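Q: Please design a sequence for this.
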């Protein structure tokens, strides 16, 4: 570990898998074992130009010899996925965070059957979850939706997995069999036994569809688990004043800038990562004022408490917002 926050790793292997997807195997640069992680965890990957992006770990959580991430090259991204594809060649060293988990799997007695839904590259945390569910002997179904067979990644590995019989592949187009056309979430979740949990990750529309279906099937919110990796954050709004109380400074956040940008403008450095309200890196305590929460990170209850704000994307409903900075 190079600092309290980061680990130095090396790209030991890079493999193409599915259209525009690359799988990266990362090993410790000094050959040591890596910190353990839990299924659902992600890493912050530090990229050239100061970019930091989060990628879910998609390997076996019990294997400390390496981490594995899968990254879709997205031409419409804000630069992170393209930087990964261009920069991370085999042998390159880079900094990553230790694994963090905001998407934990519920295991143990009484946890109920798990329904894993992965859409596109959102399948990555589901692979780690499937490893854990299989090893702990829990009942689960794994539904992997992809645009077409050519877009699907991890196919050889999933076909050979000891839990292969639990995997259901679904395709929007060119499905090899009629049964593999689009997932019927209502039928799948309608057949779920009492106490089941749903886990979903993927594009926003896919996630909304799975979560809306689960709610319609009577799943309470504590049994619907999700992790966003890409959202459309509402941008801009009226200007307001932010007071950084500990620093003794204040700044007007203009209509088209973020609180984080405005603070940087007056010399207050803040830590941001995803810049779209999904990772929680920029969470800041609110001392006074009412935030206009625009993130997907905090729960509805946390947002209603107005004790913290994600300053990378959220704004203020009051003309003045006092922060603990
Ligand atoms: Fe990720 Fe703000 S930087 S939530």
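A: Design:
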């Amino acid at each position: 570990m190079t600092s309290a926050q980061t680990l130095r790793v090396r790209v030991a292997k890079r493999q193409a898998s599915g259209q525009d997807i690359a799988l990266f195997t990362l090993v410790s640069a000094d050959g040591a074992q890596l910190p353990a992680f839990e299924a659902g965890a992600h890493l912050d990957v530090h990229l050239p130009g100061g970019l930091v992006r989060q990628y879910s770990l998609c390997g076996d959580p019990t294997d400390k010899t390496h981490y594995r991430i899968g990254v879709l090259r997205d031409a419409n991204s804000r630069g992170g996925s393209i930087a990964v594809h261009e920069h991370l060649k085999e042998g390159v060293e880079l900094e990553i965070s230790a694994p963090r988990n905001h998407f934990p799997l519920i295991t143990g007695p009484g946890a109920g059957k798990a329904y894993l839904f992965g859409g596109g590259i959102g399948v990555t945390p589901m692979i780690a979850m499937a490893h854990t569910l299989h090893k702990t002997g829990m009942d689960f179904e794994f539904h992997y939706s992809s645009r077409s067979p050519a877009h699907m990644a991890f196919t050889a590995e999933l076909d050979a997995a000891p839990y292969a019989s639990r995997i259901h592949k679904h395709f929007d187009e060119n499905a090899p069999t009629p049964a593999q056309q689009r997932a019927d979430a209502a039928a799948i979740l309608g057949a779920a036994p009492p106490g089941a949990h749903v886990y979903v990750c993927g594009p926003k529309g896919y996630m909304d569809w799975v979560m809306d279906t689960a709610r319609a099937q009577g799943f309470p919110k504590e049994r619907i688990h999700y992790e966003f990796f890409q959202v459309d954050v509402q941008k801009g709004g009226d200007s307001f004043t932010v007071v950084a109380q500990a620093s003794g400074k204040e700044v007007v956040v203009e209509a088209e800038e973020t609180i984080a940008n405005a603070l940087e403008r007056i010399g207050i450095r803040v830590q941001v990562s995803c810049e779209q309200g999904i990772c929680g890196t920029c969470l800041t305590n609110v001392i006074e004022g009412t935030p206009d929460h625009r993130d997907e990170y905090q729960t509805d209850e946390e947002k209603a408490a107005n004790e913290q704000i994600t300053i990378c994307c959220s704004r203020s409903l009051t003309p003045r917002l006092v922060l603990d900075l």
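Q: Thanks. Anything notable?
A: Residues 204-216 form the longest helix (13 residues). The first strand starts at residue 6 and ends at 16.
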